[in-house]
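Troubleshooting: if your tokenizer reports a length mismatch, compare your output against this known-good record of 361 residues.
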Amino acid sequence: MTSSASISSNRREQKDELEALMSIFGPEDFSCTGVGDLEGDSDPVGCLTLRLQLDAPLRIGPISVAHLPPLQLRFALPGQYPAHAGPQISVVAESAWLALDAQRRLVRRLRELSDELRGDAVLFALAQFVQVDAAAFLGLNCEENCDTENTLAAAAGVFAAADARRRAQLFANETVACGICLAASLGARCFRFDACRHEYCRACLTAYLSLHIAEANVVQVTCPNPLCKKDKDAAPLSPETVALILPPSQASADLVVRYTNQLETHRLLQQPNLTYCPRKNCNAPTLKDPEEEKLCVCSKCGYAFCFFCNRTWHGYASYCQIRHLETIATEYSSAASSPAHRKLLELKYGKKVLERVVREI
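Known-good structure output:
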């Protein structure tokens, strides 16, 4: 049976160890209750949030990640620790990303390590093992054939989200040189584009985006880097990305709505089947159904009209009226070398009608 004096001595060592851990890991990754009870009536209970270090990005299904979700090392310190007993420990994986068998193997190894260091404060050593050595121990630090099938239990999206969060945390603490004003700023005040990795302070990006959205210049709402702007395949930023960049405010929300509408109009303008409702009180952009040759139905007011002549729908059997006979006859005759254009004219005006017009002109 452990004496009261021995328990008090252990509690003092526990307090020193826990204060050191708080200093090392900080309140975000370390929490503990019951510290400082020298009489031993309650055991300190705490949790360390730890991240496994990977030697190289890990391939998980269709994605590759550089950071895994964290593990929680939970512990309780009995009055006999550290002189005569080890800590009571367990491992919990956020979002259950680590398979239960892998968790059990890791806990067994940590208990073995605790037994090897019996008599010493071991929490920091256990934490170090989880951070530095656990990935290799679990078969995740290898160039190929990693044992992800038996070790990892969550879907790829869980790992992608955790990797993105960790990258954002690390970026927030970096010093970044803005690609526009060239001033150095903390990463928390900057934004990095995922695809090209170019970095800018949010103040410059906000001014840049606000200017182009105000001018409805959608194609310029991209990464400001000249190389990105010259890329013909570069698409405008998504409204979600613009919302991430702009400061949270009602003005920013209004700007995102405005940009979303501009982006939709820009997308419609790229469609070959785009036309506009001919009704003067509507004039809404309307896409012709690809299955239809001529019929258009306005999605806003429901007005049915002809895609070619914009007149009220005149049926499939009737053709568009020819208003300038000589012009159409010349166009049809010169279209002999362009079968596609010739077919389009026949669809609008009718093949027999066009042949008769050509004969009579």
